[in-house]
Amino acid sequence: MYSSFPRAWTAYQSAAYAAGPPPRRQFLPREFVERLLAGAEARLPLLDAPRLDWAHAERVHDPAYLARWRRGEVTRAEERALGFPWNEAVVERGLLSSGATLAATRDALAHGLGLNLGGGTHHAYRDRAEGFSFLNDVVISARWLLDHGHARRILILDLDVHQGNGTAALLADEPQALTISVHGANNYPFQKEQSGLDVALPDGTADEAYLAALDEVVAPAVHAFRPDFAFYLAGADVLEGDQLGRLALTPAGVRERDGRVFGWAARAGTPLVTVMAGGYNRDPQTLIQTRLGTLDAALAVFA
């Protein structure tokens, strides 16, 4: 059980926006990144993302794979699978994003809540990169928790619009972790892995049906598992108008989703790390407000 005394919550500044971003068509232009960070900093202090030690990555990923990516010895096919060309900033971006999630994990152990404004690179496998994901930051942090005896039942609740295929594969044989993915049935990745629980939704799913799936399918599984630590991938790509998503949630629906997740964790006294995962909306201002709404929902519940 984490300490319950009041504190000023902090968040780690999104490394995903700071170094080597993928094409702007899919990510926020710098002007809007600055607005997002300013909005976050108005709510709580922002800390620079710390760099992950390679030894933590090697507990999850194949050392030979990591060595090749460190040296830039990757093929064009691997670059296409990742979604953008290799350069040193790509590697640094992965280390910073994963380091931020690990730092947020330590925060959650101490105070109940950890926040990373980036992270959620759930398509990375043990020995290959996919879908903007070079390192699987959440699995790296989950492995650190298990290695050090800080948790025995870890929930990874992935509410990004895309199935967390890398996460599911990496933890398929780990009895101390439950992976739950609520995602678009017809969306990337087109070859899905088997999570502990998969909830595949049809194109156009809106607020009412989405929230019903959380209440009727996901919540009972979470309660039955009784996690003593949780990671929440709060993807904003479930919003209507997302370039890479096919669902149709409103910002109010996403706020309801977030409130449910934070409420489950807070009522159970379960330490929770939130990472922001995907979000590629055609309207940057809608994306910013939704991201900030996730922070507001977390602070409202945990404070």
Automatic annotation (TrEMBL):
Keyword set, alphabetical order: Hydrolase
Listed GO MF terms: histone deacetylase activity; hydrolase activity
One Pfam match: Hist_deacetyl
Keyword hit for Hydrolase: yes
BP-aspect Gene Ontology terms: epigenetic regulation of gene expression
PANTHER family: HISTONE DEACETYLASE 12, HISTONE DEACETYLASE HDAC1-RELATED
Start and end residues of each Histone deacetylase domain: 46-283
Family: Belongs to the histone deacetylase family.
CDD domains, alphabetized: HDAC_classIV (cd09993)
Name of the featured protein: Histone deacetylase superfamily protein
SUPFAM superfamilies linked: Arginase/deacetylase
